Amino acid sequence: MTPDRTPDRTPAWPRRLALVLGTGFGAGRVPHAPGTAGSVVGLGLGLGLAAAALDAAAVAAITAAICVAGVPICAGAARALGDPDPPAVVWDEIAGMLVALLAVPSGWYWWVAAFVLFRAFDVLKPWPIGWLERRVRGGAGIMLDDLVAGAFACAAVQALARLAGGGS
After folding, report:
1. Which of 3, 11, 100, 106 is the most buried (most CB within 10 A)?
2. Is residue 3 assigned to a domain?
3. What is the enclosing helix (H) or strand (E) of 53?
4. 127, exposed or middle or buried, with CB in 10 Å at 0-12, 13-18, 19+?
5. CA-to-CA distance for 84 and 72, rounded, in angstroms?
6. Residue 2 has pLDDT above 50, yes or no
């Protein structure tokens, strides 16, 4: 059933693909804190991008592609699960975590700070994050609040780094 309770007539393979991707390759299926598990996947992907020694433009382009792809992926996974914003769908956390890591200063502690701040913004949902979550529907709604939480975390890490004299 879809979120509006009509049968999902999507063919099996796109539905399965949306579920595999949307659940972060299964990370969203953990019984407790699936959003945190999805964020860990995003952190791992961010570390992989850093290890690949890509330039900032390439990392930004990959992050943008993951964010844009997230709208249909999250919509399809939500439709397959029959819930407008199921906890198991964590592609939005993966993308939001990547946004939080954009321009992260060097040093493991800044990566930890980005992770903690992203989870805090995602859980606490200060304005406009909570407002967006309540107002925007579908795949865009699933994605948007986490992307803004990621942007807030990125900005907060940059501000902290500047205050500490280690800004990038």
Report:
1. 100
2. no
3. none
4. exposed
5. 13
6. no
- Closest listed residue to residue 112, CA positions, set 165, 47, 64, 54: 47
Give the span between the Cα atoms of 40 and 111, in whole angstroms: 11
Cis previous bond, 3, omega within 30: no
Q: CA-to-CA distance for 83 and 13, rounded, in angstroms?
A: 19
Cβ neighbourhood burial of 118 (10 Å; 0-12, 13-18, 19+): buried
4 vs 116: CA distance, rounded Å: 34
Asked if residue 4 belongs to a domain, the reply is: no
Residue-range definition of the domain harbouring residue 80: 12-163
Q: What is the pLDDT of residues 91-145, one digit of tens each?
A: 999 999 999 999 999 999 999 999 999 999 999 999 999 999 899 999 999 999 9
Q: What is the pLDDT of residue 100?
A: 98
Q: What type of residue sits at position 34?
A: P
Whether residue 76 lies inside any domain: the answer is yes
Q: Is the pTM of this model over 0.85?
A: yes
Residues 26-36 have a mean pLDDT of: 96
